[in-house]
Amino acid sequence: MESARQMRWHYENRTNDDVLRHPSDGKSWKHFYSVYPEFAAEPPYAMLSGWGTKGKLACPYCMEDTKTFTLKHGGKSSWFDCHRRFLPTNHPFRRSQRRFLKNRVEIDGPPYALNGNELWEILREFPKVTDGPFESLSGYGQYHNWNKRAIFWDMPYWKDNLLRHNLDVMHIEKNFFDNVFNTVLDVKNKTKDNHKARMDVAELCVRGDLELIQLQNGKLAKPKANYTFSKKDAKSIYKWITELKMPNGYASNIGRCANEEKGSMHGMKSHDCHVFMECLLPICFRSLPEFVWSALAELSRFFKDLCSNTLRMNDLVRMKENIPIILCKLEQIFPPAFFDSMEHLVVHLPMEAILGGLVQYRWMYPFESFSNRSLRNDPRTFINEEDPHTLSILNKCGRPSGSSKDYWLSDKEHRSAHVHVLINCDEVKPFLELFLQVYSINDEDASTVIHANFPEWFKSYVHDERNVINPNLKGLSWGPNSKTTSWNIYFVNGYKFHTKAWANGKKTTNSGLYVKGVTGGGENDFYGTIHHIYELEYVALNKKVPLFYCEWFDPTINVGTRFHSQYNLVEIKLSGRYGPYDPFILPQKVKQVYYLTYPNICKNLRGWCVPIKTKPRGYVQVDNINDELPYQVEETSNVLLVTRIEHLQCLADTSNVELLDDDDDIEARNDDDDEDVDLLNEDYSEHHIHTDDSDFDNNED
């Protein structure tokens, strides 16, 4: 049966190339099959361990071996300075006594991971069902967070399952984004940098420039941090958000969520936060100080790589090494109140991907989607038509849509279009190679000579009666009719494209495209916009060939294009143009992007934009129907190890201070007078406090 064959797919199609495409490529699945080779069913993934996810012991990996503490003034659990233990033993961050918790160095390693047998010894005496609150279990919340013994432990193989729970990347990413956005934009009642946070900073960190200050009138004021925007700059950011234009089906209308006057966002879905974190955040926050922006840009790239359609094992290993460094960079910037359990759980996501495989098979998007309708069986969905008896260039790969009109190509356009079709036809390539050999044309002159002489040479060669030639090639050699059909919309490769002019007055944009370069790093990709969509008619073949007429940006590195490999970020100069006249491209050769300019406050980046690559649907999008699939890139970019440590500047923006509201002022004074809470209580006692900072003073910077 077909269904039975599909259920065995993960077993019969296993690979060993260290590329993760399916959960069966994960370490947990492979280990499970090595122990139980006869078991051909998917291991269950969920938070099934019975470990509670609230309080100071919320992390199911660190468990009771955590360094979480309760903030004296904030009153909540904080995972601040809990990530240096994941760094290499010789990393300079470990020795710092000023950038993290003051007067403390880190000598511990990562928490010990209990195996199945060790967990069973702990849980065997726990009840399967608890009557009443979890707190009734002895030691709950203090020494453990077990709320029961999960029924899955009755299964003989459960102890051998390497992954007995699943961290939901969707909610972790959303909560992390919310904290970043609300803090950087200083959103009232949502920021993690309020007056209580500053009071905790004074207690825990060496950041005197951020401490509350008392004015001459007796009121308290909060110095503005340079990791936050002023109200004026925040308005510019919200204005930038309201003007966002993205492709159809890529995300919801994020612009409608921004309120420029009130300075707030509302109605953002989890997927909107997902897109913002991975694509928009490095652009939106580009005007922040370099050491702040770089840490946030590295965080954005981390999530983007983690959520790829395919993952390489060596990239996951690098990501596992990078994320503690990224979190430590953020800990040097944001206050302890910023770091709740969601910021901490990120450190375990690469290892969970190594064990459980691709994120897309384990996150919550499929279950929270508003629409479960698949378009693959929709009768209006286009399916590629390949005819083995015709030329490859003539196989139909997409379809136009909307109204059309006739257009007459100029001689220059006709010549360029004809050459482009010839050199991209697989059956013509042997003749092109012969042409280059006969005339001994070098690579430097090839493009010019091909455009000038190849069409005539090819036509003469295929019509020579001495040569046995495919009749279709003879028809192709005559070239297209000068009269073409012009369209505004075209569906191909799972994308919806339209011309640049068609986007005027619309809330979406679908005219951006790029052509993948020869190398895989992205440095030599070609970017452009579609100005016209033509269907060339070959009368001799009774066939049509679609072509996009594009305007290409200047691809010259550091002139018209800048590539930042550490952040996998490309910048395009809007006024730069590709010199040679080569406007045409076959639709099947392109992928879609959209272009984002920087907010107006990024004055030194005016005139530059960032192309954002979009995910193909795997089928052609049907008009007015939106299938809700989460954004992902096709595969991880080449992950680089984070080795750069930016110079840490003063965190206070001395140009501005914020007066506390009367209620906050009174509350702050009351908190300041409360001496009943011992700062170094049991929450801090395990942090190995040291007072000698001489071992790092000369190496910290």
Summarize the structure.
This protein is α+β, with helices and mostly antiparallel strands.
Structure description:
With 701 residues, this protein is an alpha+beta fold. Among the domains are: 2-35, no CATH class; 69-110 and 167-369 and 648-672, no CATH class; 392-405 and 480-613, SH3 type barrels (Roll), CATH 2.30.30. It is 28% helix and 15% strand. It has 18 helices and 20 strands. It has helices at 2-7, 9-12, 27-35, 116-123, 169-184, 195-204, 231-242, 270-284, 290-306, 313-331, 341-345, 349-356, 365-368, 411-423, 429-438, 443-462, 471-477, 662-673, and strands at residues 19-20, 69-70, 77-78, 213-214, 220-225, 258-259, 264-265, 311-312, 398-408, 483-492, 495-498, 512-515, 526-538, 543-552, 561-564, 569-573, 584-585, 591-597, 608-613, 652-659. The N and C termini lie far apart (65 Å). The model is unreliable at 38-47, 370-383, 618-628 and 672-701 (pLDDT under 50).
Quick tags:
alpha+beta; globular; 28% helix; disordered C terminus; 20 strands; 701 residues; SH3 type barrels
- Unreliable residue runs: 38-47, 370-383, 618-628, 672-701
Shape: globular
Query: Can you summarize the main beta sheet?
Result: 11 strands, antiparallel
Counted by DSSP, the helix tally is 18
Distance between the termini: 65 Å
Query: What portion of the residues fall into strands of 2 or more residues?
Result: 5-15%
